[in-house]
Amino acid sequence: xxxxxxxxxxxxxxxxxxxxxxxxxxxxxxxxxxxxxxxxxxxxxxxxxxxxxxxxxxxxxxxxxxxxxxxxxxxxxxxxxxxxxxxxxxxxxxxxxxxxxxxxxxxxxxxxxxxxxxxxxxxxxxxxxxxxxxxxxxxxxxxxxxxxxxxxxxxxxxxxxxxxxxxxxxxxxxxxxxxxxxxxxxxxxxxxxxxxxxxxxxxxxxxxxxxxxxxxxxxxxxxxxxxxxxxxxxxxxxxxxxxxxxxxxxxxxxxxxxxxxxxxxxxxxxxxxxxxxxxxxxxxxxxxxxxxxxxxxxxxxxxxxxxxxxxxxxxxxxxxxxxxxxxxxxxxxxxxxxxxxxxxxxxxxxxxxxxxxxxxxxxxxxxxxxxxxxxxxxxxxxxxxxxxxxxxxxxxxxxxxxxxxxxxxxxxxxxxxxxxxxxxxxxxxxxxxxxxxxxxxxxxxxxxxxxxxxxxxxxxxxxxx
Length: 465
Prior knowledge:
disordered N terminus; Aspartate Aminotransferase, domain 1; Aspartate Aminotransferase, domain 2; 15 strands; alpha/beta
């Protein structure tokens, strides 16, 4: 809590004029809060509202009236009672925002999840009436889309790597370029994953240059696999060199080793026309001769959280039989969403229209400008909204260092600082999350859907009331 001494005499006077919690409890509008929540919860919400008012006063904001304080406490009370998963409108401009759940699902995927939420033929062959393979449709679609002989789906890409290393390299050595010893989200590092997979890391080459000869020289009788890791969340530029995947495949085959390629985001199609940058395509890694290719289902594929494994039948079969497979497998609802998403990828044009991640990446500046003007007209007044140029990002470790030209609304709502407005919108239902630049809150059109506009307009009008 801020001390009165940190402000001016005028601040001190304004702070003393704030009502006490007991006075707020006695107001008529507080009665409805006491009817829907325990008294101690209402008191806690009122105190939080008063704390926020004190900070705003010290920042030069106007003194809120008691009714406004109770209204803010009601918002805080609702937020406290609904702290589980809730819908968020993403106005950050980061498409695959890890903290907001990465890829938003296509309508077909959402509908498939609902249909599978009851009983489903998860491991039941409808034709024979006997037990069947677990969701064979996903494996068949992955093979068709990538040219692989076999495929598996587990619960994320880290799990895919753990399973691959445990199944193919346990008790042996794994060769990795020093330039590919990356850390992925949540602090998970490639060396740690290798260790947990029961293998021993052998570093080859240097940070900026690793050649085919470096791998060849490091092979010993204990070597089980070569692991190549895509720089999905950073770039090494300048005086660099790396071994070609096809050449590594030849070396691995000659020496009786497995070649595992961790693609991270993993694109099923060419993204250059969408995102102005190239990401390695899964089918290219398969064609180059990798035994196993692992990638995420919730990044550039645009599906649910999943780790997708494609490759040679012999290698994938080892993983399918591994005891870890049961612990890492996907549930029926995620499998349904994944299968529906992969169905969309069979038609690239349809996928670009129907899968939100691809649709966002394909937006033009002209389209974003038109949509920004439409949203600005809905919220002004009471907000002052200026359309400005913005730089969106793919996020989620995909397309690093690539800025995607966008448009954003820079908002000013009289009587509210940018921080106060951002907090007010985050506590709304649905929550609205933007980003702050200077004294203004930015709502980036790149990650907004037209269906979000009415909720945004209502939330801003309510905040300004």
